[in-house]
Amino acid sequence: MKKLLLGLGLAAVCLTAHADNCDHTRNSLDAIHCSNIIYQKADKELNTVYKQLTKKLSVANKKTLRSGQLRWIKQRDQACTMNSVDMGEVIDSACLLDQTTSRTNWLNDRLRECTTVGCMASKLDD
Questions:
Q1: Which residues does the UniProt record annotate as the domain Lysozyme inhibitor LprI-like N-terminal (predicted)?
Q2: How far is the C-alpha of 100 from the C-alpha of 80, rounded, in Å?
Q3: Where are the domains of the chain?
Q4: CA pair distance 121, 78, nearest whole angstrom
Q5: For a Cys staple, 46 with which of 18, 52, 92, 104, CB 3.0–4.6 Å?
Q6: Contact, 124 vs 65, CB < 8 A?
Q7: What is the model's pTM?
Q8: Would you give the end-to-end CA distance of the chain in angstroms?
């Protein structure tokens, strides 16, 4: 019994390790898994930059940034979601990644501005 459990455990580790080799995906399931990993990293980076930026803002500017961020999330979700007759709502993961990367770059630009010349409230509401 112990050998069987050990064998199953090793097999699971090997399958997981292979699925995480995103340079050489074996099938569409691996590709989806890898896309998800890449998107999660991009989303984590966006959240990190957002938090760094909010630390530099006044209370009023934080509210402005937050409302702009909520509008961006709604716009991103609308742009990256399609309706399919066969499957219902379909999310375009490449679109999510592009939108998230673009927004992270925008947030980084605002962070650089705050650090170098000061936070410009007029640029936070986008």
A1: 27-107
A2: 11
A3: 62-126
A4: 26
A5: 104
A6: yes
A7: 0.77
A8: 60
Query: Angle at the Cα of 38 (from 33 to 40), degrees rounded to 5?
Result: 95
- In this structure, the strands spanning 88-91 and 81-84 are antiparallel
CA distance 18 to 28: 14
Say which residue the tokens 């501005």 belong to: 113
Query: In the numeric block, which tokens belong to residue 15?
Result: 């399958």
Contacts of 96 (CB under 8 A, 6+ apart): 39, 76, 80
| pLDDT digits 0-9 by tens, 12-71 | 444 444 446 788 888 888 888 888 899 999 999 999 999 999 999 999 999 999 999 999
Give residue for tokens 């007029």. 122
**For tokens 């050990």, what's the residue?**
6
DSSP 28-78: HHHHHHHHHHHHHHHHHHHHHHHHHHHTTS-HHHHHHHHHHHHHHHHHHHH
pLDDT band at 82 (very low <50, low <70, confident <90, very high): confident
